[in-house]
Specification:
By secondary structure, the protein is α/β, with parallel strands linked by helices. The strands form two sheets. Strands 2-1-3-6-5 form a five-stranded mixed β-sheet, with helices on both faces. The chain folds into two domains: 5-46; 67-249, Alpha-Beta Complex (Spore Coat Polysaccharide Biosynthesis Protein SpsA, Chain A), CATH 3.90.550. It has twelve helices and seven strands. Helix content is 43%, strand content 11%.
């Protein structure tokens, strides 16, 4: 029996929040909320997963000599804040084997098309920019293959060859920042055209937005991926083959000593575990970095020749 959206949300609120004792510690209450969400949300989203066998397995398209790294800034490249500009310079500097494609509200449509019903829902404000970007990143890779990197990803090394060599890869959710119940992070995606996981995830996203008028959860697109690998045996097979690496090493730098004086040795230590570091342009250190701090060096001094 499929619970209605209202009943599903009511169930989550009841079990995750109301039946979450106030006398528990903050960490225990958070763990309880995550435990409820990690089961309840994919259970609801299961209804949008294509039936097993309806997504055809196909030969993955061969890799182009110079693949694309896609990113999106709806307001346009020239209007991006300094931190975002610094992140793009870092990609160009450290990923010479890929072409960076920065898309905006106008140029996006040179690369993808979406069902008219979804475009109309966005026009009416039912689909917010964050979830619209989630739709677009998967659609870009489905139609063209390559890589997706958030505009807030500061790259410090080339994309590892073991990732380049995979048909599909995402980092799993970690515990450093954010919500562990999200299952995966989608600020970086490697997807070749023809990847089964990419196709099944994309169709689930399309199915949801064709049927519903607003988000179910902030991390629902990530949790749609979880619903796919839980309910489609073919997707589960490919997911098992995918390297399982959690996102924690990509979230070390910005949430530690970002406003402390820059030290190259410490910077190298913080960034050694991953080829990029996730940042946030909304933080005060991004908007007004302390001179000589790690944030200041990253934004105003690194990769200036890129």
């Amino acid at each position: 029996m499929k619970l209605s959206r209202t009943w599903a949300l009511t169930d989550i609120v009841l079990r995750a929040h109301i039946l979450n004792p106030l006398w528990w510690s903050r960490d225990r209450r958070r763990e309880h909320r995550c435990a409820v969400a990690t089961v309840a949300i994919p259970r609801y989203l299961k209804r949008y997963v294509p039936a097993p066998g309806t997504i055809a397995e196909q030969k993955v398209k061969p890799t182009n000599k110079c693949e694309k790294i896609f990113t999106l800034w709806l307001q346009g490249e020239k209007n991006a804040p300094p931190l975002i500009q610094a992140c793009w310079r870092s990609i160009r500097k450290n990923c010479p084997d890929q072409d960076l494609v920065i898309l905006d509200e106008k140029t996006l449509w040179d690369w993808i098309d979406l069902p008219q019903e979804i475009l109309e829902k966005r026009r009416r404000g039912h689909i917010k920019n964050a979830h619209f970007a989630d739709i677009c990143r998967v659609e870009l890779l489905y139609q063209h293959g390559g890589f997706w990197l958030d505009s807030t990803a500061f790259v410090t090394a080339p994309i590892p060859q073991w990732i380049v060599d995979t048909d599909f890869f995402v980092f799993l959710a970690g515990n450093v920042v954010g919500s562990p119940y999200s299952f995966i992070q989608n600020c970086f995606i490697r997807g070749r055209r023809g990847s089964y996981l990419l196709a099944a995830w994309r169709q689930t996203i399309i199915n949801f937005w064709m049927a519903e008028n607003r988000e179910f959860d902030y991390f629902m697109h990530q949790l749609m991926f979880k619903a796919v690998v839980q309910n489609d045996p073919t997707a589960a097979k490919y997911f098992e083959k995918m390297p399982h690496v959690n996102q924690d090493p990509t979230h070390v730098l910005w949430w530690t000593d970002i406003n402390q004086p820059f030290d190259q040795k410490l910077f190298d230590q913080y960034t050694a575990g991953a080829f990029f570091q996730k940042t946030t342009y909304r933080s005060p250190w991004a908007k007004n970095p302390t001179p000589g701090s790690v944030a200041d060096v990253m934004i105003n001094h690194m990769n200036k020749d890129a």
